[in-house]
């Protein structure tokens, strides 16, 4: 597994097949092992797979965009609506606000982020490609209602999953000494 962690790369060019149900379950099991202060389990993952579900998610993205900018031209609207179709599966990762006075929400967000990292490492290890996207729509409060989220919840990203349609190019591994110092 350490080799997968060191060598993992993002892949923005994804095609079918998406992870199988069995593989997706393994990936979520990995995600649910993220560090979690006070055992709050502040995670929720919403899966959109298939033409109909991806189109519905695209509608959510467009409606949220139009609430912030009602004057979007038709080309921009079409581009936003088609974003989910970049992959055969999109997972919305959410940090649920548990409102525990001993666990600040930022810790729930960090836990959800660690869960996403485990999810994409699992995808890579199983031979799938993954791309963790955020952008303004991940932080748009108008996305919460159609996804059934509470106002205090935080979307930590949209995880695009599928089979790489291009050869994955390895990246240089950063030098540890450039980022680590001993106190």
UniProtKB/TrEMBL annotation:
Keyword ATP-binding on entry: no
Record carries keyword Iron: no
Keywords: Flavoprotein, FMN, NAD, NADP, Oxidoreductase
EC top class named in words: oxidoreductase
Cofactor(s) needed by this chain: FMN
Protein EC: 1.-.-.-
Database matches in CDD domains: YdjA-like
Domain called Nitroreductase: residue spans: 7-162
Pfam families: Nitroreductase (PF00881)
Family, similarity comment: Belongs to the nitroreductase family.
The protein, known as: Putative NAD(P)H nitroreductase
Organism: Kangiella taiwanensis
């Amino acid at each position: 597994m350490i080799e997968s962690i060191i060598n993992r790369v993002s892949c923005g060019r994804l095609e079918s097949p998406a992870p199988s149900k069995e593989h997706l379950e393994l990936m979520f099991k990995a995600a649910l092992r993220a560090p979690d202060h006070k055992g709050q389990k502040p995670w929720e993952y919403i899966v959109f797979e298939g033409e109909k579900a991806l189109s519905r998610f695209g509608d959510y993205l467009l409606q949220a965009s139009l609430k912030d900018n009602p004057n979007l031209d038709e080309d921009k609207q079409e581009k936003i609506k088609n974003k989910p179709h970049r992959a055969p599966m999109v997972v919305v990762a959410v940090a649920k606000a548990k409102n525990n006075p001993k666990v600040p929400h930022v810790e729930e967000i960090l836990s959800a982020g660690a869960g996403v990292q485990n999810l994409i490492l699992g995808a890579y290890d199983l031979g799938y490609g993954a791309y963790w996207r955020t952008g303004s729509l991940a932080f748009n409060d108008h996305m919460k209602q159609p996804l059934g989220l509470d106002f205090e919840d935080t979307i930590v990203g949209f995880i695009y999953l599928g089979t790489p349609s291009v050869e994955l190019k390895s990246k240089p591994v950063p030098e540890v000494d450039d980022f680590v110092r001993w106190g």
